[in-house]
């Protein structure tokens, strides 16, 4: 499975809009059979807050469905499957409350996001609970990954933990490769 950019349909009228952020049958039609077990919700007060790059190692790896419900973020997924021809490559998309886009990130990928304005709220589903013993990460500015964070020359606001994560090349990653390399993002309308 590769990373997918999903745009849920919005049904609008004079009151506003309604949307299904998750529909099991539609996602299964795209080959996604994640059994989500937990919802996470974060608030980042300052623009240029960077959360990540995070992952959980097997057997506690997580698939995620990420959406921004207030503000705008730059959401990034990195292929961490060592046998993949796209190992270490990434894709990114702007997710916002306005565009309603969601990023589905399968197991075997790292994830991080940068807030593009103040007071951003992000909600994401995961298919495995948090497991501290499997918690992993990669330093946000690792030159090997070459991620172009839209920081406009600013330094990001980081947690102490995120500011001291290891380099990509220092990790021994053992995520399974399913034969599906990372592909450029194409928006799927739900």
Total number of helices: 1
Strand line-up in the sheet with most strands: 4-11-6-9-1-13
Low-confidence stretches: none
Q: What is the molecular shape?
A: globular
- Proportion of beta-strand residues: 35-45%
Mean pLDDT: 96
Major sheet details: 6 strands, mixed
N-to-C SSE string, H for helix and E for strand: EEEHEEEEEEEEEE
The proportion of residues forming helix, as a percent range, comes to: under 10%
Q: Please give the alpha-carbon distance between the first and last residues.
A: 17 Å
Number of strands: 13
Radius of gyration using CA atoms only: 16 Å
Class by helix and strand content? mainly beta
Description:
- With 190 residues, the protein is mostly beta strands.
- 3% of the residues lie in helices and 38% in strands.
- The strands form three sheets. A six-stranded mixed β-sheet has the order 4-11-6-9-1-13, with no helix packed on it. The chain has a five-stranded antiparallel β-sheet with strand order 8-7-10-5-12, with no helix packed on it. The chain has a two-stranded antiparallel ribbon with strand order 2-3.
- A hairpin with a 2-residue loop joins β2 and β3 (16-19).
């Amino acid at each position: 499975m590769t990373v997918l950019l999903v745009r849920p349909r919005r049904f609008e009228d004079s009151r506003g809009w309604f949307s299904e952020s998750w529909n099991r049958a539609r996602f299964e039609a795209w080959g996604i059979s994640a059994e989500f077990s937990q919802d996470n919700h974060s608030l980042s007060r300052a623009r240029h807050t960077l959360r990540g790059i995070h992952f959980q190692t097997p057997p506690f790896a997580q698939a995620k469905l990420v959406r921004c419900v207030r503000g705008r973020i730059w959401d990034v997924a990195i292929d961490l499957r060592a046998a993949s021809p796209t190992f270490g490559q990434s894709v990114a998309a702007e997710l916002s409350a306005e565009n309603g886009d969601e990023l589905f990130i399968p197991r075997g990928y790292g994830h991080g996001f940068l807030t593009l304005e103040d007071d951003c709220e992000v909600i994401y589903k995961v298919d495995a609970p948090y497991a501290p013993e499997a918690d992993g990460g990669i330093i946000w500015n690792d030159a090997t990954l070459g991620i172009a964070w839209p920081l406009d020359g600013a330094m990001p606001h980081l947690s102490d933990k995120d500011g001291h994560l290891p380099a990509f090349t220092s990790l021994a990653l053992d995520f399974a490769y399913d034969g599906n390399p990372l592909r450029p993002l194409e928006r799927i309308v739900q």
